[in-house]
Amino acid sequence: MSKTKVGIVGYGTIGKRVADAVMLQDDMELIGVTAHSYNYRMISAQTKNIPMYRLLGAEDLNGLKIEGAFEDMLKKVDIIIDCSPKKGGAENKEKYYIPNKIKAIFQGGEKSKVADVSFTAQCNYDEAVGKDYIRVVSCNTTGLCRTLNAIKSKYGIEAVHATMIRRGADPWDIRHGPINAIIPELELPSHHGPDVQTVLHGMPIFTTALSVSTTLMHLHAITVDCKETPDVNEVIKLFEKTTRVRLVDNASAVRSTAEIMEFAKDLGRLRSDMPEIVVWKEAIGVTGKKLLYLQAIHQESDVVCENIDAIRAAMGFKDAKESIEKTNKALGIDYCKQCI
Amino acid sequence: MSKTKVGIVGYGTIGKRVADAVMLQDDMELIGVTAHSYNYRMISAQTKNIPMYRLLGAEDLNGLKIEGAFEDMLKKVDIIIDCSPKKGGAENKEKYYIPNKIKAIFQGGEKSKVADVSFTAQCNYDEAVGKDYIRVVSCNTTGLCRTLNAIKSKYGIEAVHATMIRRGADPWDIRHGPINAIIPELELPSHHGPDVQTVLHGMPIFTTALSVSTTLMHLHAITVDCKETPDVNEVIKLFEKTTRVRLVDNASAVRSTAEIMEFAKDLGRLRSDMPEIVVWKEAIGVTGKKLLYLQAIHQESDVVCENIDAIRAAMGFKDAKESIEKTNKALGIDYCKQCI
Amino acid sequence: MSKTKVGIVGYGTIGKRVADAVMLQDDMELIGVTAHSYNYRMISAQTKNIPMYRLLGAEDLNGLKIEGAFEDMLKKVDIIIDCSPKKGGAENKEKYYIPNKIKAIFQGGEKSKVADVSFTAQCNYDEAVGKDYIRVVSCNTTGLCRTLNAIKSKYGIEAVHATMIRRGADPWDIRHGPINAIIPELELPSHHGPDVQTVLHGMPIFTTALSVSTTLMHLHAITVDCKETPDVNEVIKLFEKTTRVRLVDNASAVRSTAEIMEFAKDLGRLRSDMPEIVVWKEAIGVTGKKLLYLQAIHQESDVVCENIDAIRAAMGFKDAKESIEKTNKALGIDYCKQCI
Amino acid sequence: MSKTKVGIVGYGTIGKRVADAVMLQDDMELIGVTAHSYNYRMISAQTKNIPMYRLLGAEDLNGLKIEGAFEDMLKKVDIIIDCSPKKGGAENKEKYYIPNKIKAIFQGGEKSKVADVSFTAQCNYDEAVGKDYIRVVSCNTTGLCRTLNAIKSKYGIEAVHATMIRRGADPWDIRHGPINAIIPELELPSHHGPDVQTVLHGMPIFTTALSVSTTLMHLHAITVDCKETPDVNEVIKLFEKTTRVRLVDNASAVRSTAEIMEFAKDLGRLRSDMPEIVVWKEAIGVTGKKLLYLQAIHQESDVVCENIDAIRAAMGFKDAKESIEKTNKALGIDYCKQCI
User: Between chain A's N and C termini, which has fewer beta carbons within 10 Å?
Assistant: First the structure.
């Protein structure tokens, strides 16, 4: 079988991770990534011998080894993973992907209409098979979809309310705050609820969001009104069986987002990432038919595996389970979920 | 009418504020505060000519002007406001207040059984009239009681779920973190729910809590299942009329806890405090019978006025409304709630 | 004597404080401040009955009580305190102050050439007497000038090196970071050194700067190569006698910038400000002819009193000492510097 | 040649990294590490098949696979790397290492007298050859030694002053602050200066220290009075040639400690560490004979390679250069220092 030729547009937080992930798949070949400016990310890419193509309007690339122009890369690929900043994907689609008849995967910063389907592999892979344009939803939406999909399948869902406590900026981002504040998002519902519905159609969810002074992870406080009465131990077992969800507990001293990220470092993860959605055992509670839980989202990495599965779906690979397992194995996802 | 003679035990975050507040009441006299060690708080007290009494076990007081021992202060007062660190109040009660037949007000760090009644003035002042021992509930519980009591009176309440996003440490506290993490409280429910029930008896509330890297205020994300369908504009009016609750909005650029505290500075508040519970207009939402809102709690100051009212209740003053208005006026509470 | 009629352009961090300070002077009258948009600062101004004048290009003022246009204010004043954002002052000078023959005080964000003299009252008041345009230097430069001027007068100075550890954003500023980083300023020397020389002519100073994740105060680590050997206790006495400099120590538990700001709150300062430059006793050290010390700068307030003195200098008031004392008394500066 | 059998006592921030590093050396064998409690670090160790030995007084180890008691490990090793919390090393030496005649490497938290020599490989490897007890100095001291040693060799040093801006807590440490403050260390000089002198004997250095609200790295602002006039470009070349020192610059967008750590992630470093001392090109300055520079220290990792070299020195391996190069190669140190 020939390998799928993948090009990546936008080599930032997500793009650089997807590039590494593509290189770890035995059914994919990384044709190249785009270069927009000279910086430590591109230097790192060069040390990994990743081919670089100059973006239109690129700044001085200062000695980086460039293979050609963006358009040259387009000619060589089967599919583009578009990791452009917000709305850049929609522009690229009109300008490049449609005219050149290239399939493309977009990220959650784009509006859902950019694509034929919004996507979380374990929820709706089948919908995406053979589609030309697939949108991997945002890190927060992906996290909500993974756990809510599991709960819905077991207990049914009447209503969901989630409070999203968002990190103020990414770890490398020194410009954005807040340094010392809690900032509510003054729109109700926040965009996350409607976005979940692009994957889990009809999910009755309402979300509130706010930002805090941390760079590491988002945290969701979720309340689900179930159709059937849930049980804490059953829910723990349910999440243990759910791929790309990881339980942690106080016993292992993983008491905060900081310790989750340290655990990821200790496990030797690539870039010290934690792509699984992390749920605290002790914070799962039931009161009547209400199920409460807290989950942490590593905003930089949870969608990377989704992009890999989306490539396979777009290229017509039909078996969701096989794709997910293949991706997980290549990336070390679900590794050591229950080490002891 | 003779003034109520008030002594304050514990001159920390709450104690120093209650001392200032007592001095602003025309029906109270501040007999003194206790000194435990030499520091900038005691130096400030001395510049205000507040009489200081040496606590048993006090460290070197280094030139502070001391009036006498703690026991000397006890002989001069009608009532003690006990602002000791956690559990210190219960010990003092057994050791000093009961033997000396002195009334006392305790803070929310004490267990509820320390007192005859747990107290939030606008909710259950009447229960506290004439009682010897009253417990002002914690800053978070006070905030929940103020707004939930108003909602209950108008719409009835089936169930409440609140996610409490707590400040990691007070502004002056340099030892405690987190510097960069979100820390869930791994007990369900958190203690806040049951604590609300000590004031609003039978309130069906479930709370989840977590801590973040900020010093300024707590923030509560609250979902109320009402008995009757609420309306956003009505709720805004309801909160406008509710004492010790203040609405802010995006139009006035108060978009975060940081800007709330800056507003308090600009208003010229004592110690730049914001004793009212602050609700964002744009974050009040209704979906079906569910009411959602976000409120910010200035952990250092919201209970100060409660202590003043608790003094009056303990001394047998019967009119809740008059006490609250008197306290508010003296402290500038509710001032400029709707300036324009 | 008629009062000096003062108008303030720019009602932000500095402008709002200067407005309050002008109102506290018995030889000045606050004619008004400019309004650029509706927000909590303007609401607070209105509650203080401060007349507001609409800036050209002002956004919707949403019910604020406006006295007239900016030009109307110009006609009523003797002098303008220009607290515009960076470079706005220079533009206003050309466009308004020169044509209207109005004296003006500028802030440290402007280049020094905007004014006839750069100013720190206790260093070079005399140079500014009768000048039309005076520039109060920035918070950091003001802090360096106050202490270096004192040291120079006693020991002479061969060379100064200062490392400026800057707060990342002001307390109300939720947009700027860093949340978790140290950011060096990649220019050598930083602009602070040359700026000191605009006040202390010929001072041999070299500065390095960096930003950290805090909102409260800047901190300077200063090394002075003195001409004569300094003595720690003498330096302590020198700073005790120097106006607008305050010593704190470990004994009083003022061990950090956070505790300095809490001390300011406890002292009942307006807006909880600490306008004095704060030096830690225990961090004053001598090794050979080198003097080392650490000082903290409250970036929001230390220049406020300088603006008041600058007004008097501009208006021809000749006695520096009298102006400084008058300003200090009105603003409570130097109050309780050695309480015990 | 038989491999050196290494045991590690204390599996925390340093211990876990040294364990990984030992496993990467072809002349060493990791016999085991000690287990004190069940937590994510030990779980991670188990997934790496690292043998664990129970520490005296260990808490419930909850299913971890334990090889035996601490004493059993002692019998199998040639040398111990003691990474105990402060002062634990000195106790262990008396109690275990001397009676059992086992060589040991200690960390910088121990007093220098615990060992025969304090150690930084590129400065004084030769002094340590064949010694029984070697102390690897702290992360900050190691950083100072690496760059000062290079400067001294080229220009000679008259005097050094360094301001150490320390991270408040490690990334995983959620208990310690400050959240929003700058905390000066109120002792002069800070302990770092004298500690440098245990390695660079007679170095005339004076240090000042303070802590800030960050978890990522320390930063040093260093002023060196050189004997001969330094030149900026020469210093850049000097640092380029100095092992375990890395230059970064604004051009590559590495403008802060946050971007340094992101660069380390992108380079694929183990645990995303940056063991080299990082110096900003643009922040190297010269004024007269004074050389100024800023350097960042990854507190968690810079001493790991020093422990490896210390093992070789203790075991009698005589060639410093060969040991350092061997260690560097195994750990990827100095990799891609000048990628382009």
Answer: N
Q: Quick check: B181 and D174 CB within 8 A? A: yes
Contact criterion met (CB < 8 Å) for C179 and B180: yes
Long-range contacts formed by B315-324: CB under 8 A, 24+ apart: B315/B4, B315/B78, B315/B79, B315/B103, B316/B129, B316/B130, B317/B129, B318/B126, B318/B129, B320/B121, B320/B122, B320/B125, B320/B126, B323/B121, B323/B125, B324/B121, B324/B122, B324/B125, B324/B243, B324/B244
> CA–CA separation, C215 vs A179, rounded Å?
7
C interface residues, A as partner, C-beta within 8 Å:
168-169, 171, 173-181, 183, 213-215
Strands C157-167 and C218-226: antiparallel
Which residue from A186, A188, A219 is facing B182, i.e. has the nearest CB?
A219
Interface of D with C (CB under 8 A): 159, 161, 163, 165, 178, 180-189, 206, 208, 210, 212-217, 219, 221, 223, 250, 255-259, 280, 282-285, 287, 290, 292, 294, 296
Number of CB atoms found within 10 A of residue C87's CB: 12
CA B43 to each of CA A202, B138, C245, D155: distance values in angstroms, whole numbers, following the listed order: 62, 27, 18, 51
pLDDT bracket for residue D58 (50, 70, 90)? confident
Q: Which residues of D touch A339 (CB under 8 A)?
A: 43, 46-47
Instruction: Classify residue B229 by burial, with Cβ atoms within 10 Å: 0-12, 13-18, 19+.
Output: exposed
pLDDT of residue B340: 57
Confidence of residue A1 (pLDDT cuts 50, 70, 90): low
Contact criterion met (CB < 8 Å) for C176 and A176: yes
Is the pLDDT at D271 greater than 60? The verdict is yes
**Closest Cβ opposite residue B180 in set A182, A185, A215:** A215
pLDDT class of C60 with cuts at 50, 70, 90: confident
Question: Which residues lie closer than 8 Å to D297 by C-beta, 6 or more apart?
Answer: D139, D140, D142, D143, D217, D218, D219, D220, D277, D278
> At which residue do the structure tokens 């819905």 appear?
A152
Q: Is the pLDDT of residue B187 over 90?
A: no
pLDDT of residue C340: 57
- Residue C221: closest CA among chain D residues belongs to which residue? D163
Is residue A223 within 8 A of residue A291, CB to CB? The reply is yes
Query: Do you find a cis peptide bond into B51, omega within 30 degrees of 0?
Result: no
Q: Are C310 and C134 in contact (CB under 8 A)?
A: yes
| Model pLDDT for residues D163-180, shown as the tens digit of each residue | 999 999 999 999 999 999
CA torsion through residues D86, D88, D94, D97, sign: negative
Set out the domains of chain B in order of their start, with CATH numbers: 4-137+303-331 (3.40.50.720), 139-297 (3.30.360.10)
Determine the Cα–Cα distance for residues A284 and B5; give it in Å rounded to an integer. 49
Instruction: Select from B166, B172, B179, B183 the residue whose CB has the most chain D CBs within 10 Å, as the one to mutate to test that interface.
Output: B179
Annotated catalytic residues of B are: 139
Q: How far is A161 from chain B (nearest CA, A)?
A: 8
ipTM above 0.95, yes or no: yes
Question: What sign results for the dihedral spanned by CA atoms A317, A320, A326, A327?
Answer: positive
The set of residues, in sequence order, having a beta carbon less than 8 Å from that of D230 and lying 6+ positions away, is D151, D154, D155, D224, D286, D289, D291
**From D175, which residue of chain B is nearest by alpha-carbon distance?**
B177
pLDDT in tens, B147-171: 999 999 999 999 999 999 999 999 9
pLDDT tens digits along A19-44: 999 999 999 999 999 999 999 999 99
Contact at CB, A285 and B216, closer than 8 angstroms = no
C139 tagged catalytic: yes
Nearest CA in chain D to B216: D180
Shortest Cα distance, chain D CAs vs residue B110, angstroms: 23
